[in-house]
Amino acid sequence: MKTYFTLFIVACQSVVALAQDSKTPYLTKSLANDAISSVVVSTSAGGIQVSGRPGEAARIEVYITGNNGRELSNEEAKKRLDEDYDMNISVNGHELSAIVKNKHQNMTNWKHSISVSFKIYVPEHVSTDLKTSGGGISLDNLKGEENFRTSGGGLQIDKLSGNIHGSTSGGGIKVSNSGNNIDLKTSGGGIEANNCDGTIKLVTSGGGLHLENLKGNINAHTSGGGVEANNIEGELITSTSGGGMDLRQMKCSLEANTSAGSLNAQMVKVGKYLKLSTSAGNIDLELPLKQGLDLNLRAEGINPSKISGFNGSWGKSHVNGSVNGGGVPVEARATSGDINVKFN
């Protein structure tokens, strides 16, 4: 009997929360004559959005809201900003700098606090260094060195290429249509990655992983949810201690480990190796019918009891031998469950 499991669906809640998204900016500054090549932003309470807009005049927009997102008049926003914060927006050597600092080391009147968010529109060949502790970060259509971090919101990345390094401890991550070198981490939400290629590292301790249409060298790990993957090429190394795994349309080298659920792996083509393990469920393994494989399987039970064209030892709990003349090593371990094998 197969044991079915429910995957922890990736929950990228509150991926990006930029203040006053649909409202008039508190301040707009043109950057059309500055040939911006890098952007540095630091704000303690607010979101950050940087978008590459080739052919469009570069600019920065500032949005200010009161405590709990309450709307403020421009007069009230200016009063609070002048009294309690230093905001400096400048351009030096083609670098845009937007820095917001609290004037008081310990701000006791939280009802008087504000959130200062930025929307920045620049050419696509721009590098970034972004930091906020109170909002989400969104980047799109950029080519360069992108570094960004927040402890109070999610990350949303689309159409980036280059070196991409981002982290959050307070939200989910969504990355799409991006490539080269991607390194993203969260301890407070799930990760969704779609249509990306290159060297990809994804780590979360607070949610599940959803991976689709990825190509390259991929490391994806979670201790707080399940793993779903579809149509992966190249190499995937993935693990979870917080859920099951459902891996479909795999055309890659694959190492997958879970200690908290069952594992389903559908291999269209096995790359240089296949290593699967679970200590708390079954493994359902689908292998390509005509590929040469060396099998090493261990479980409480292995189904079916035999297959045609196999050369070696096929027992109730241990299989060691080859199909189609042998070739790629296939290892699977189910400590407390069965391994169900099918060839297609």
Key structural traits:
2 domains; 22 strands; disordered N terminus; mainly beta; 61% strand; 344 residues; 22-stranded mixed beta sheet; 1 helix
Could you explain how this protein is built, in words?
The protein has 344 residues and is mostly beta strands. The protein has two domains: 1-12 and 190-344, no CATH class; 17-153, no CATH class. 3% of the residues lie in helices and 61% in strands. It has one helix and 22 strands. It has a 22-stranded mixed beta sheet that branches. It is elongated and about 80 Å long. It starts with 26 loop residues before the first strand and ends with a strand. Mean pLDDT is 91; it is low at 1-22.
Tally of domains: 2
SS summary, helix count? 1
Strand content: over 45%
Structural class: mainly beta
Helix content: under 10%
| Distance N to C terminus | 20 Å
Radius of gyration: 25 Å
Largest pleated sheet: 22 strands, mixed
Enumerate the spans where pLDDT stays under 50 for 5 or more consecutive residues.
1-22
Give the number of DSSP strands. 22
Shape call: elongated
Q: Roughly what is the average pLDDT, rounded to an integer?
A: 91
How do the helices and strands follow one another from N- to C-terminus? Answer: EEEEHEEEEEEEEEEEEEEEEEE
Question: Secondary-structure map with pairings?
Answer:
Blueprint: E1 27-30, E2 38-43, E3 48-52, E4 59-66, H1 74-84, E5 85-92, E6 95-102, E7 114-122, E8 127-132, E9 137-150, E10 155-168, E11 173-176, E12 179-186, E13 191-204, E14 209-222, E15 227-240, E16 245-258, E17 263-278, E18 283-287, E19 293-303, E20 310-314, E21 318-323, E22 328-343
Parallel strand pairs: 2-6, 2-8, 3-7, 3-9, 8-9, 9-10, 10-11, 10-12, 11-13, 12-13, 13-14, 14-15, 15-16, 16-17, 17-18, 17-22, 18-22, 19-22
Antiparallel strand pairs: 1-4, 4-7, 5-6, 19-21, 20-21
